[in-house]
Amino acid sequence: MIILESTRRIHGVMESKEIEMIRGPLLFVKVSSGVAFDEVVEVELQDGEKRRGRVLDVSKNLAVIQIFEGTTGIGSLGTTVRFLGETFEVGVSEDMLGRIFDGLGNPIDGGPMVIATEKRDINGDPLNPASRAYPKDFIQTGVSAIDVMNTLVRGQKLPIFSGGGLPHNMLAAQIARQAVVRGEEEEFAVVFAAVGIKYDDFLFFKRFFEESGAKNKVAMFVNLANEPAMIRLITPRVALTLAEYLAYEKDMHILAIITDMTNYAEALREISAAREEIPGRQGYPGYMYSDFASIYERAGRAIGKKGSITQMPILSMPNDDITHPIPDLTGYITEGQIVLDRGLFNKGIYPPINVLMSLSRLMKEGIGPDKTREDHGDVYNQLYAAYSRAQELRSLATIIGEESLSSTDKLYLRFAESFERTFINQSPTENRSIEQSLDLAWSILSILPESELTNIRTELINKYYKKGMEAEPK
Predict the structure, then answer these.
(1) Angle between helices 325-333 and 288-296 (to 10 degrees)
(2) Is the peptide bond before 351 cis (omega within 30 degrees of 0)?
(3) What is the CATH number of domain 89-366?
């Protein structure tokens, strides 16, 4: 093949006009040495249209480029590829709160352009493990099943495992609206990244934040399902770049919510297939674990910094399979998971959180007398033990019949029904304080005889146990 124009750097920019191949969203370009991985690229078409991309791989004299807007309309002749000698950066500012952006950080809400305080690499600045502070401060979401049973702490990464048709979007919006760091509400903000969502879902989030009054503390980054897969890989990184700036430069406590990581993983698989890489489990690339980690590990607290980033990535499990590579790898990286249950959803319970399958590994660091309340740990242990026994008794009752159970066993069944209908179930607009959630838990535990509360200290039973009171299911 004849090289139409040699490639060389002029003022940091290298040009090439030799398109070797176009495959899906990827552009294979002949270059000389000096092209770097992750370098930003500008592609100018024959009609003058310009598109952006980044270098995905460099092998000898061939560069593989991701085109953010897709390769449709790009021809092998008359196209100029410019390697700009820099990585992808996005402008960040406090003024981005209350605004809506596309996946590349451009405003799409009709407002003015944001004047950036500074530009930052979307890949972030990795925290030295030795400089990380241990997550320990309680974040109140207003959702009882999370606050009491799967406590979220500042600097934690706690994903939500959902399934098709389950209300993870509603739960994500509710948490974004209600979440507060107790005593420091004025320093709290939400960075919300919607990855590969439908336009209807975008309108839902937009209206929800506007009508709930939470819009001014939320920065939204939206990548729609009909947009190129490339942008899905960029969107969460752009959002987390703003989160890092607000947390570590402006001393804010940031809750970063990313939905849906399954769409992100599908885009990763699509790009991997276009590159003809050897597939891993179920066709996903073998490096998906490290790629996920490059996103999840951007949560945390840094020694000497007042701010923090707490992450709640949301993913829909294909076929409700928790062993699928996406939730499986996510579980290895993050500090627990909140699992939504289709059985509870079919009962009309919202949020349908399966507390027995859910876990917050850092929960013990965020509860106690100075953070939530003195009885929190004991109440959690008792609720978990009682509900677990009730589930076993439900299975037994389907075999031998409920009339064959003892009177105490029947109380456990009543407890389970009340726990689901009264404690787990709450309105999407209901914002419960941790004190309200714990008081409600004690009311439900009062269905059981005092002798059954073996996981609670005597002095706490004497103080909080509501003798003679029972919480009837709604």
Answers:
(1) 50
(2) yes
(3) 3.40.50.12240
| Low-confidence stretches of the chain (pLDDT beneath 50) | 1-6, 468, 470-474
Please state, in angstroms and rounded to a whole number, the distance separating the CA atoms of residues 158 and 359: 9
Domain boundaries, the chain: 14-83, 89-366, 375-464
> Which tokens in the block code for residue 210?
């506007």
Residue 82: strand pairing partners: 15, 42
Q: Where are the alpha helices (DSSP H) in 194-350?
A: 199-212, 229-248, 261-274, 288-296, 325-333, 342-346
Assign a CATH topology to domain 14-83: Elongation Factor Tu (Ef-tu); domain 3 (2.40.30)
pTM of the model: 0.88
Give residue 9's pLDDT: 56
- DSSP annotation of 338: E
CA dist 216 and 145 (Å) reads: 27
Are 79 and 27 in contact by the 8 Å Cβ rule? The answer is: no
pLDDT tens track for 127-184: 778 888 888 889 999 999 999 999 999 999 999 999 989 999 999 889 888 888 776 5
Task: Output the DSSP codes for 142-165.
Answer: S-HHHHTTS-EETT-B--EEE-TT
Amino acid, single-letter form, for residue 291:
D
As a whole number of angstroms, the distance between CA 126 and CA 132 comes to 11
**What distance in Å separates the CA atoms of residue 241 and residue 243, rounded to the nearest whole number?**
5
Distance of CA 56 to the CA centre of its chain: 25
462 by DSSP, 3-state: which? Answer: helix
First to last CA, the chain: 75
